[in-house]
Amino acid sequence: MTGAPEPQTSNTNRWTTLDRDLKRISRIEEATTYVARPMVAPSIALAFIVFAGIASAVLLGQFPVNMIVVTAAGFGAYMAINIGANDVANNMGPAVGANALTLGGAILIAAIFESAGALLAGGDVVSTISKGIIDPSAVADADTFIWAMMAALISSALWVNLATWIGAPVSTTHSVVGGVMGAGIAAAGLASVSWPTMGAIAASWVISPVLGGAVAAGFLALIKHRIIYREDKIAAARTWVPLLVAIMAGAFASYLALKGLKRVVRIDLSAALLIGLVVGGIAWAVARPLIHRQSEGLENRNKSLKTLFGLPLVISAALLSFAHGANDVANAVGPLAAIVHAAEAGDFAARVAIPTWVMVIGAFGISFGLFLFGPKLIRMVGSQITKLNPMRAFCVALSAAITVIVASWLGLPVSSTHIAVGGVFGVGFYREWHMEQRRLRVSSAQRPPEQRLPRAERQRRKLVRRSHFMTIVAAWIVTVPAAALLSGGIFLVLNAVAN
Fold first, then answer.
1. Is 411 helix (H, G, I), strand (E, B) or coil?
2. Which end of the chain offers a freer environment for a tag, N or C, measured as fewer CB atoms within 10 Å?
3. What percent helix, strand, coil does the chain show, rounded to 5?
């Protein structure tokens, strides 16, 4: 019979085949997206580095374009990205680990305050020889100086990148110090290095984390004995939390006056402490009624106490980021500023002004690095070394500010990275010691089951992860020599190619 409709099975088979093909295409697209995802962050970082180089050529307005400055600007952007990926995690990690901030909120706050600190209060003058490590008279000429600073910039950026990859928070300032030292030795020999200065820097490897850890542990002990172990925890908190907030406000006011306002006004230690005392008094007067109102209706247990420390912890993390941006970014972009000055003036100086566009590269590079690569180190510092809550994290943040003030008073060189991470270790080790002391006070029959475990099993269940502790300490120890060796090799290659 002519004109009869096609069987339904034929249409069904065609649609089934089409659906099967579309599903295959969809799976291929998903697999492509999954494979390409790890390349997104490096691609954005590379685009920023290229943009920084192009922007430097445009802003300088020179023709022909000075390719040395363009290249240095690119490596300066690379260094800034690595600072954001590594150094900033120390400020935000405790707040994230304590669940006072989400990871996204921490990244946003850190990006804003790091950039603000760098642009508003960053040093307008920086030591090109990085705090007197190398004698300027030992460097032969401007070209040699440029290649030395270029090698220092490249080596320090590479080292911080490697440390981030293995999950070790290191001092970017120490990386720059090592880079300058290595390039200086390669350019002018061992006699060009100020070894007493290097000895003081090496001493800070021990001083910074030990001092930071001791201060953090001391405040945690105070909180435990004056608030947590009291019968009426809420009443104790109403007395002590405003006082702790006042100490935090005063410490950060002094810290920012010393480290973050160098561009605006020069302040000595006594004036900074007076500022801190005034700000602390005002903070206590404001915090007392606020804490009393916030604590109304809270249950008499530790979980309620955590809510009272949440906001102070967030504020302290933001202030730490501002001070870090003001203090450390200038050190990181110092070699870039030195290269720009030497390329434009044809000579070199012990101290040079930092062009605004160089600080902009540093500020935005930190934000990009934090957003693209920072979460790994934030999680590690915040939750993988030891377990943090708002009270413990608050002690870490407070110790960072107080330790810098004490070190400035004593004239000791310290690293903000080592202080912050040392504070995390101090809190964890204090908890281990405190738990062991409580275990020893109780007879064996009264101990809970977890405290009747064999000694070997108790050792295995330590509150501080020993693998992270050993990795971080090893990275701290080798930072300066590793950056120095890398920088010396890069300088020899650059100098050979140039000549």
1. coil
2. N
3. 80, 0, 20
484: closest CA among 133, 206, 203? 133
Helices marked H in 442-465: 455-460
Distance between the two ends of the chain, CA-based, in angstroms? 92
Phi then psi for residue 351, to 5 deg, are -135, 140
Q: Can you say whether the dihedral through the CA atoms of 183, 369, 326, 272 is positive or negative?
A: negative
Q: Rounded CA gap, 405 and 267, in Å?
A: 13
And the tokens for 144? 């040699």
Going by their DSSP bridges, the two strands 125-127 and 351-353 should be labelled as antiparallel
Residues 332, 363 contacting (CB under 8 angstroms): no
Question: Apex CA 395: angle with CA 221 and CA 164, to 5°?
Answer: 130
How many C-beta atoms surround the C-beta of residue 85 within 10 A?
28
- In contact, 358 and 390? CB cutoff 8 Å: no
What is the C-alpha to C-alpha distance for residues 160 and 301, in angstroms, rounded to an integer? 43
Contact between 298 and 304 (Cβ < 8 Å): yes
Give me the helix-helix angle, 142-166 and 67-86, nearest 10°. Answer: 30
> Residue 290 CA to chain centroid, in angstroms?
31
pLDDT tens-digit map of 433-486 = 888 787 777 655 555 665 555 555 455 556 778 888 888 888 888 998 999 999
The CA-based dihedral angle spanning residues 487, 488, 493, 496, taken in that order and rounded to the nearest 10 degrees: 140
Using an 8 Å Cβ cutoff, are 316 and 108 in contact?
no
By the 10 Å C-beta count (0-12 exposed, 13-18 middle, 19+ buried), 341 is classed as buried
* Residue 12 phi, psi dihedral angles, 5° rounding: -60, -40
Residue with tokens 């006082």: 243
Is the bond into 64 cis (omega within 30 degrees of 0)?
yes
Which of 43-61 are b and which e, b meaning 16 or more Cβ less than 10 Å from the residue's Cβ? eebeebbeebbebbbeebe
DSSP secondary structure letters along 384-397: ISS---HHHHHHHH
The 3-state DSSP class for residue 126 equals strand
Per-residue pLDDT of 351-368, as tens digits, reads: 677 778 888 888 888 888
* 275 φ/ψ angles, rounded to the nearest 5 degrees: -60, -45
Nearest to 396 by CA among 273, 309, 476: 309
Taken in order 144, 150, 156, 162, is the CA torsion positive or negative?
A: negative
Rounded to 10°, the helix 195-223/172-188 angle is: 170
- Give the length of the chain: 499
